[in-house]
Structures are given as structure tokens and as C-alpha cells.
Amino acid sequence: MANDKNQVRQITNMEEDFTQWYTDVCIKAELVDYTSVKGFFVLRPYGYALWENIMGQLDREFKRLGHENVAMPMLIPESLLQKEADHVEGFAPECAWITYGGSEKLEERLCVRPTSETLFCDHWHRVVHSWRDLPKLYNQWCSVLRWEKTTRPFLRHREFYWQEGHTIHASEAEAIEETERMLEVYADICENYLAMPVVRGVKTDKEKFAGAERTYTIECMMHDRKALQSGTSHYFGNGFSKAFDVEFTNKNNEKEYPYQTSWGMSTRIIGGMIMTHGDDRGLVLPPRIAPTQVMVIPIAMHKGGVREKAEELVSALAAAGIRAKADYSENSPGWKYAEYEMKGIPLRIEIGPKDIEKGECVAVRRDSGEKITVSIADAPARIAELLETVQKGLYDKALANLEEHTYTASTALEVSDIMADKGGFVKTMWCGDKECEVEMKNIAGVTSRCLPFKQEKLGDKCAVCGKTAHKMVVWGVAY
RNA sequence: CCGGGUGUAGCGGAGUUGGUACCGCGCCACAUUUGGGAUGUGGAGAUCGCACGUUCGAAUCGUGUCACUCGGACCA
Fold first, then answer.
1. Region(s) of chain A under CATH 3.30.110.30
2. Domain at A294-387, CATH from 3.40.50.800, 3.60.120.10, 3.40.50.10240, 3.40.50.920
3. CATH architecture, range A11-72+121-277
């Protein structure tokens, strides 16, 4: 067998088994590793580097918009978690509890935070007194714990990393504005950095966050046409303030309950990115988020001058702000090509004696496989251009997938047929009743993804019950 | 949580009617190589997921358990 060595790194074909393909990519691209505890993963250096880039981008935006980072405790006393009824009902089933401190049983058990609304409220109860104390625009980078039954790399960890923004405002309008603004921050990083087109919208009551008055969401379509909720932003009204007795005195010397928001994006988005752009050769990373954008592969290094030229090229690219590296290891060039394709590096550059003679190198696009001859002198500018082309190409391809697999239907049976046949997103009118939402799930196997901001009038009848309907819902199968 | 599958060296696998563990890749050393996963020679590496049981003897049989995985239910 010529390719015995191949088999070591071989991944399952996407079309054959998408979920297995996904797991293979996560492991073989060395993004994550399993551990001894179910649902807990090691983010390996390459996986963590992706998260660092996402964190950096988000954190800059948060700060630009006036948010401050804080750190809350990891543990929540049971009594605190229980103050808001809907919230506790939503989260209690997946909480992990600490019952012992050393060898002593605790008076009150402590929940490892599944999210930190209650902790922020508890804090604000102590520090918010006057309209002058508002707004508070906080964010926290941390990990949270949810005792999930089915776990998968990135998509569903029991412990996962995220940021949770929590803000508190004197007025309803200001809080709503904040909620919408932060959703747009998420949409922007998805579209412009991760090359993932999104559908922006509002969750139905059935799908909204436990304790929220309204949940905004961005929904992405994966390569297998399933939906991934990629970021959410919640408007709480003053429900939490009331439950936690957070009050402030307004300018008229009246007591008022302030209005809150929270919003989060997690390492889950990395899974989304993998499932949006990846192919049968492995990971495909958008250049703006790729830890390494260009990998230089020296050819026939034993021949004089090759390594030196490669080093010069890497320096020239780095000087132009391009994240470039070279692989000087003893592995064969073919091995290196396969390796960096698996790792999704957007461009590789081959440089060997023949190229050097001509003052050229060969750039190869990860997304298309296209080979482009570039003069070494122009490389920094040309490579920067190419990276942008790849970035745009990935977005356009993902957008085409989204548009091609978004359908409209007027009855639940039609939705069912479309899902059985093709899969994707289906838009229908909906009367607003939860019963119809449940019925749609029974008939077509889909859940509501959102009520898109961009509403269309497809008709005036609910696709399920046939009664008058004014809202358009996007349905899909969710991760 | 329910149902199916899988756990043997770092990885992927083989292991017969129970008899004391093989192969390939990788790894280490040296040499030759280098434009799509190189080749040769030599070498290191496993109490067979874990526990208990049956047996003179268990990778193999039984019970339990844990993990991974696929599907479902659940889940913001």
C-alpha cells in the first residue's frame, strides 16, 4: 500500500457520516482532546489559539462600547439561584452541586455556576442605589458548568468557556438598545471574522432564555444544513431586579427597579466554524481568525540557500502583519501539505530551488486548492490580497449554502417534506401559539429558530392551525 | 436517561475450541532522501478500560462498572 501512512490521519468523508467527520476533524487537527471525565475536554494549543483570537476580537469590541471586565465567584448558594422562578426551573436540572467543604457537609449546597445572572444581581443589590450608579456595563470571561447528557467537542461541553455580558440600566429603552447592539456585535464577528452568515431574529417564548423577557439570537446554517445558535442576547426587563431586590432612586427621588440584559458567546462557535467551512481534507479556517495564516514549506532544504530564503520570506510576511510560519522539519513536503490542510491553514507557500532561481514562490489556497505563482519581491502584498480573497470566498460559499437551503412553505406537511427531502431552514407564517410550535415539531421534526428581523409576508395563515398569522418563523433542526 | 456499537503499545487493527499477546503506522538512532503523506538497517514500547467472579489457567466465558461513539429523548 502506497499510502499506509495516510490511513493514520484519514478522516471520515463528510457525506458518509457528518458527525463522525466532525469528531475526526476536532481530534486530528489537534484542537481538542478527551479527558477522564465525560464532557470535559482539553482545549489543545491550536484549539485554544482559535478561542484566543475570538476573545481578542470580542473583547476589543466590548471595551470600545464601554464595557468593563469583572470576575464573579464560581459558586452560587442554592438560595440565591432560586430567587427567580423561571431561571431556576430552566437551570436546576443541569446544575452540579458542591455539598462538602473539606470533610464537612455544607449547611447550604453550592451550585457551580451554569451562568451568572444571579451572582451579578446579588452584587448589584449591594452596589446600585442611585440613577448615578447606572448603567453598569459588565462582562466576564469564564467557564461555566452544565451537566449535559450528550456531549461533543465544542458543541456541547459540560464545562465550557465563554463570555457573559451583564448590564443594568435605568430605562427599558436603554436596556433594549443594549441587547440589540450586542447581538449586532456577535453578528459582526460571525460574518466578518468567522465568515459565517447569520440570520438575526428573536426567539419564540418557548425557546427563549430562562428568566428573559425576550431573547435575540443569531442562527447559522452548518454544512449539513442543521442550525447552530451562535450567539444570544437577552432582555430581562426588570424581572430579575424585582426578584433580587435591586433598586435605585431616580432623578425624581422615586424608587425604581432597573432593567437588565445579558449576552453570551462561547467556544461553541468554534464548532460552528468547523462545520461551516471544513471539508474532506479537514479544517478550513477563515484567514482573519486563523492563528497561522500562511505556512511556508521549504522544498529540498539540503540544497543551499533554501532555508535562508524561506526565513526571509517569513520575516517579510510578518513585517506586513501576516501571521506566517515555516516548517523546517525533516518530514517530506507531501506530509507537510497534508498536515497543514488538516489544520486548515488558509495559504501555504512552497519555495524550492527552482522557484528561487526565478525569484518566485508558489502559493496554494486551502479553500480551492488553486496554485498561484507569486514573485518573492511582491509576496507580502500579494499574499495579503489572497488572504482577503479567501476570506471573502469562504463567506460567499457559506452564504450560498444558506440561501440555497432556505425554503418557504405554507403548511406543516410541506415543511415536513422539505426537511425529509433536502433539509435546511424553512420559513412559514405562524399564529404565535406555543401549541402550534409543538405541533410543528411533531409533524416536521423542526424547532423554531427565530422570528427573523427581516420579516416577509408569505401569507396570512398559520402553517399549523390555519388561523390568522402575522409573524414569519424560520424553522430548522438545531444542534 | 433509553437503544445500538466500541475499548488490546502513542494511533489504527488482528488475536482460532480459554494455554500467557501479534501486525502496520508513529516514536528513538544512523544513513540515504526531499516539488503531494520517502526508503533501508537497528532499537524501545502492553500487567489487553476497570472491578469482581468461573477456571489449574482469562484479551477470550459471566456479572458489574466506567469511558468513547452513533441514534433518540432532554437541553437556552
1. 406-476
2. 3.40.50.800
3. 2-Layer Sandwich (3.30)
* Strand B contact at CB of residue A232, distance < 7 A: yes
Residues in a beta bridge with A478: A227
| Residues of chain A (290-319) having a beta carbon less than 7 angstroms from strand B | 299-302
Q: What is the distance between the terminal CA atoms of chain A, rounded to a whole angstrom?
A: 39
Which positions ≥6 away from A239 have C-beta within 8 Å? A84, A211, A213
With a 7 Å cutoff on the CB, does A415 touch strand B?
A: no
> Is nucleic acid strand B under 7 Å from A437's C-beta?
no
pTM exceeds 0.90: yes
User: What is the Cα–Cα distance from A458 to A272, expressed in whole angstroms?
Assistant: 30
The reply to whether A428 Cβ lies less than 7 angstroms from strand B is no
Determine the Cα–Cα distance for residues A479 and A228; give it in Å rounded to an integer.
6
Q: Shortest CA distance to A287 belongs to which of A392, A396, A401, A399? A: A392
A29 grid coordinates: 487537527
pLDDT digits (tens, 9 = 90+) for A197-213: 999 999 999 999 989 99
Q: Does at least one atom of strand B sit less than 7 Å from the CB of A94?
A: yes
- Topology of domain A406-476 in CATH is Translation Initiation Factor IF3 (3.30.110)
- Span A251-261, average pLDDT: 97
Name the nucleotide nearest A264; use CA and C1'. Answer: B76
Asked whether residue A171, judged by its CB, lies under 7 Å from any atom of the DNA or RNA strand B, the reply is: no
Say which residues have a Cβ less than 8 Å from residue A57's Cβ, sequence separation at least 6.
A189, A193, A289
- For strand B, the positions having any atom within 7 A of a protein Cβ are 1, 10-12, 24-26, 33-39, 66-76
Enumerate the CATH 3.30.930.10 domain ranges in chain A, comma separated: 11-72+121-277
CA proximity to A425, closest of A473, A471, A479, A475:
A475
Alpha-carbon distance A125 to A128, whole Å? 6
Alpha-carbon span A63 to A54, nearest angstrom: 14
Q: What is the pLDDT of residues A87-119, one digit of tens each?
A: 888 888 889 988 888 888 889 999 999 999 999
Q: Is A426 exposed, middle or buried (0-12, 13-18, 19+ CB in 10 A)?
A: buried
ipTM reported for the complex, 2 dp: 0.88
Grid cell in block for residue A247: 433598586
Three-class DSSP category at A457 = coil
How far apart are alpha carbons A209 and A207 in whole angstroms? Answer: 7
Would the CA dihedral through A158, A163, A169, A173 be positive or negative? negative
